[in-house]
Amino acid sequence: MAAFCRGRCRWKRSSCIQFIRRNLTGPFDYDLVVIGGGSGGLACSKEAAQLGQKVAVLDYVEPSVKGTKWGIGGTCVNVGCIPKKLMHQAALLGTALKDAQKYGWQVPGPISHDWRTMAEAVQNHIRSLNWGHRVQLQDKKVTYLNLKGSLVDEHTVKGLTKTGKETTLTAKNIVIATGGRPKYPTHIPGAMEHGITSDDIFWLEESPGKTLVVGASYVALECAGFLTGLGLDTTVMVRSVPLRGFDQQMAGLVTDYMEDYGTKFCLRTVPKRVAKLSSGELQVTWVDQQTGQDQQDTFDSVLWAIGRAPETKTLNLENVGIKLNKDSGKILVGADESTSVSNIYAFGDIGEGRPELTPTAIKAGKLLARRLSGQTSELMNYDNVATTVFTPLEYGCVGLSEEEAEIRHGKDFIEVYHAFYKPLEFTVAERNASSCYIKVVCERGGDQRILGLHFTGPNAGEVIQGFAMGFRCGATLSHLKETVGIHPTCAEEITKVNITKRSGLDATVTGC
Ligand SMILES: Cc1cc2nc3c(=O)[nH]c(=O)nc-3n(C[C@H](O)[C@H](O)[C@H](O)COP(=O)(O)OP(=O)(O)OC[C@H]3O[C@@H](n4cnc5c(N)ncnc54)[C@H](O)[C@@H]3O)c2cc1C
Fold first, then answer.
1. pLDDT tens digits, the chain, 512 residues: what are they?
2. Of 29, 250, 271, 508, which has the fewest beta carbons less than 10 angstroms from its beta carbon?
3. Among the atoms of ligand 1, which is closest to the Cα of residue 43?
4. What's the CATH number of domain 191-306, 3.40.50.970, 3.50.50.60, 3.30.428.10, 3.30.70.20?
């Protein structure tokens, strides 16, 4: 009985559902075709299918310049958040092993790290996630196609296999969630030939050895951080300022800690040339912007982390009428993720002005699917998204930086509460806590609404995630002070801030 539709129909249930779906999709093969099976595309396609839409998702990974390839799931799963956090954890464990000896653990012999073991374990975990995504798509009745998609017209997508075989799909709505890829400085001789990017580092079978990381983005600092923590000689080359866009006082504390941790910084420098020596080492020449002099050193690896470029070039967007930002190459999108073609949507890293973060891509994708299925009109709220930089001393924040709060509200109309605190776990381990800092940026008048919350310290992501909800609910300084802390934690220190920057008083927390 269960195999037949409601027991009365002469059709098998599966044929019946297909018939209904074919009628609902009208003249199209699918209700929705999603190009890009990363964080956003997968979330959107699964949600839409659950809401009864007939959905196909195309995901295709163009190998990196070095030839690195990976499976479904996009940047986050394969070459971003997940392997990065696991390698960060590997580095933290090395630090914990050193701390452990102060806590009485007897560690026989010097501590060393085996890259191969770590890389294999991380890569196995990624493969399990790739598999999990494929199973979920199947369970949720999303058609997964390992094809490189491009637009033919506003309802037609062309998919190519890696051997060039072509498939055409039509859809009522099309979503583009093709993300971005790391940039290479194509004007620097040897940069592409000899360098790697974040698309490769997590898939290296052998240790990268002595590494030069070029760039000052969070990706650059995070990679440099875990490489240092794993015991590798690591230098970061920075042209201007680290962590641009983040609160610059906090960025300074992050890099101060990294320097103390062992990462070398080459500030105000611009790479000029990379050459491979007969020894196999890479000789890097750079210009010191202050003296104008050329300098050189040799490295085993050069990692370019100078930003990411959107994956828009091969999608045939402009011929279909989709407008791009000419400078960034990203797709211009409205608040509802719509593009300049009414039934084509774009979000995630490909969308102009969108935060390049996994949770925003996932949430935006789910909400778009719900809107397309007529379930809601709710739009994604991109304001005040919390985030964390997973450097050796983590930095988590939500809301405005002090600089941005000054610009938006005026220096005289904000009050900054701050504290230098010492995590309890650092005391016995005798670790340097001079960069452990809390900054709460508030409106100066009225209820002193919190505009920005910044924290450097252990588990910053976990700490800020909790406070982010309070922030979303419009927390004020008195809400913060009324909150009873959990003792003895680092997060507790946030509830105790009472020194304003304006007062000039010493903000060092004393006692427990
Ligand atoms: C090193 C690193 C660390 C990061 N760490 C974090 C972090 O800790 N937290 C966080 O929130 N974010 C982090 N991010 C950012 C996060 O990974 C991205 O913001 C997120 O993956 C964007 O999702 P998306 O769906 O827009 O694109 P993606 O996840 O990049 O997915 C796009 C997919 O589309 C595919 N594709 C491209 N073109 C085509 C085509 N023509 N046809 C078919 N498929 C195509 C791509 O191969 C890819 O699989 C990190 C990024 C990097 C690089």
1. 334 444 444 445 444 444 444 445 779 999 999 999 999 999 999 999 999 999 999 999 999 999 999 999 999 999 999 999 999 999 999 999 999 999 999 998 888 999 999 999 999 999 999 999 999 999 999 999 999 999 999 999 999 999 999 999 999 999 999 999 999 999 999 999 999 999 999 999 999 999 999 999 999 999 999 999 999 999 999 999 999 999 999 999 999 999 999 999 999 999 999 999 999 999 999 999 999 999 999 999 999 999 999 988 899 999 999 999 999 999 999 999 999 999 999 999 999 999 999 999 999 999 999 999 999 999 999 999 999 999 999 999 999 999 999 999 999 999 999 999 999 999 999 999 999 999 999 999 999 999 999 999 999 999 999 999 999 999 999 999 999 999 999 999 999 999 999 999 999 998 76
2. 508
3. 25
4. 3.50.50.60
Which among 44, 150, 158, 178 is the best mutation to test ligand 1's pocket, defined by most ligand atoms within 8 Å of the CB?
Answer: 178
367 CA to centre of ligand 1 in angstroms: 18
Sign of the alpha-carbon torsion through 7, 11, 15, 18? negative
Q: What are phi and psi of 253, to 5 degrees?
A: -65, -40
Distance of CA 381 to the CA centre of its chain: 18
pTM listed for this prediction: 0.94
Distances, alpha carbon 59 to alpha carbons 161, 162, 164, 332, 335, in Å: 10, 12, 15, 22, 25
Specify whether the CB–CB gap between 29 and 351 falls below 8 A: no
Architecture label for domain 31-72+120-182+309-372 = 3-Layer(bba) Sandwich (3.50)
